[in-house]
Amino acid sequence: MTADAATLAAIATNRFGFGARPGELLAARSDPRGWILQTLRHPYRPPDELAGLASGQELLAAFLAVRAERAAERRAGGRAGAGTTAAPAGLDTVRERLLPHYVAQAAARCRVAIASDTSFRERLVHFWSNHFAVSIDKPICLGLAGALENEAIRPYIDGRFEDLLYAVETHPAMITYLDNQRSMGPHSDLGQRVARRAPETAQGRTGLNENLAREILELHTLGVDGGYGQADVTSFAAVITGWSIGGGEGRFAAGEPGAFVFRDALHEPGARVVLGRRYAEGGMAQGRAVLRDLAAHPSTARHLAKKLARHFVADDPPAELIERLTRAYMVHDGHLPAVYEALVRADLAWRSEAYKYKQPCEFIYSTLRALDVAPREPRPLLGSFEALGQRHWSPGSPAGWPDSAADWDGADALMQRIQWSVALGERVGDAHPALDTAEAALGPLATAHTRTALERAASGSQAIALLLMSPEFQRR
To answer: Residue 68: is its pLDDT beyond 90?
Structure first.
């Protein structure tokens, strides 16, 4: 094989995937672009590692049951008098009950990323999961963030964006993360009932919650400069009143506990105008129609194209590449594989310069893939992500983790990587010769300077640490 083919194979595995596992560079050499794209040309099948995980509906139903228990205890304590309100011995907190499920979900996610032979697909899963970010910093999402990724993202990344969008926005994780279950139309049946019974407090109890509507417009579809205004946010928030979760008691009971449900009694009636288009009253169908038009909007196409180009190619991606992906999206009616193919086929995406600095999760995944190590004990594995500052599903905001080098290459963060690399090198010792690992993971991307440094290292463990901290391993 030519050197060019070897270089393209290294770019294919590192830029478009989570790094090469032993043997993958050779497998990708004959047709690097085809090697990437073939991973999307098979029917989706859930990874075996995800089998046995509790569903989002099960976890949310359990959360609601615990909350109902607590409410009953408070009521009983109030009737019994002071000194009897303590929770019964052995009743764990909600976080303690959900934490084992989070650990299982995050560990399974890691094992898939480390062992996958279709890591382009897996990188896309993580990309879209971050695009539709929810955070475990909100206790109810501790068990739901992984379920959102597995149930509403994995099965839809090789279809149309409209379907992915609808699956995410109606998943209980997104509904509860952005509090849409609390949004009540002032003129809805329940809103009017509350107003009649307690008019002095109705205004504070029957208002719209704009969180979900705003994030759909600003983050998930059009983008912050996508041409919407505050009036569109408010109108769209009214459209999606009633998008809620099942469960509850008394007049609040509806649907299966923990599942998405449309609560007509909360829905604000009447036609609404969003982005200049009028949507007739239609209950649940009204919101579905808005999502359909948002998915087809040119601003959405450009917003998604820019994010994909930034993630895969450069922090400041070429305008020509963004336009190429935008056109593919519009021409193919939001069919995502057509956009991915336009990205992979673009020469601009295959420049030999490694512009992207690896985020902590990418660094960890590529390291463990290069060493062909997939730790089975979840807590030490997950501890690596916490130590390097990127705990699973815990971005600081609904905007997700940042995707530029400036957000990850500070001095403290670099020191954490060095310490982690040194510790890992000491654990693996001479079991993984650094030069062989460099050849298998980077191929011709490993420079002569780095190879010389590995040869001169005082020990096998030091050589591994030097490899992991080399510029060519830190970038993709």
So the answer is: no
Instruction: State whether 161 and 223 are in the same domain.
Output: no
Last-in-domain residue among 299, 325, 353? 353
**Helices then strands (H, E): number in the chain?**
24, 4
SS3 label, residue 58: helix
pLDDT above 50 for 87: no
Which pLDDT does position 374 carry in this prediction?
A: 83
Residue 100's CB is within 10 A of a number of other CB atoms, namely 13
Q: Kindly state whether residues 296 and 392 are assigned to the same domain.
A: no
DSSP per residue, 322-334: HHHHHHHHHHTTT
Among the residues of 116-223, which ranges form H helices?
A: 119-131, 145-148, 161-169, 172-177, 189-197, 202-205, 211-215
pLDDT over 50 (residue 407): yes
Mean pLDDT score, 162-181: 97
* Angle, alpha carbons 366-445-120 (nearest 5°): 40
Per the prediction, the chain carries an average pLDDT of 92
Tell whether 335 and 239 lie within a shared domain.
yes
Better pLDDT: 139 or 306? 306
How buried is 229 (Cβ within 10 angstroms: 0-12 exposed, 13-18 middle, 19+ buried)?
A: exposed
Do residue 296 and residue 371 come from a single domain? Answer: no
Dihedral angle at the C-alpha atoms of 159, 214, 251, 98, nearest 10 degrees? 70
Residue 185 has pLDDT above 70, yes or no: yes
Distance CA 361, CA 364 (A): 5
25 belongs to a structural domain:
no
SS3 category, 335:
strand
Is residue 406 situated within a structural domain?
yes
Q: Assess whether 154 and 58 both reside in one domain.
A: yes
How much is the pLDDT for 93?
A: 73
- Answer yes or no: are the C-beta atoms of 44 and 156 closer than 8 Å: no
* Count of domains for the chain: 3
* Domain carrying residue 161: 48-165
If one counts every other C-beta atom within 10 angstroms of the C-beta of residue 285, the result is 12
Does a structural domain hold residue 37? no
Residue 7 lies in a domain: no
Query: Residue 244 pairs with which residues in a beta bridge?
Result: 261
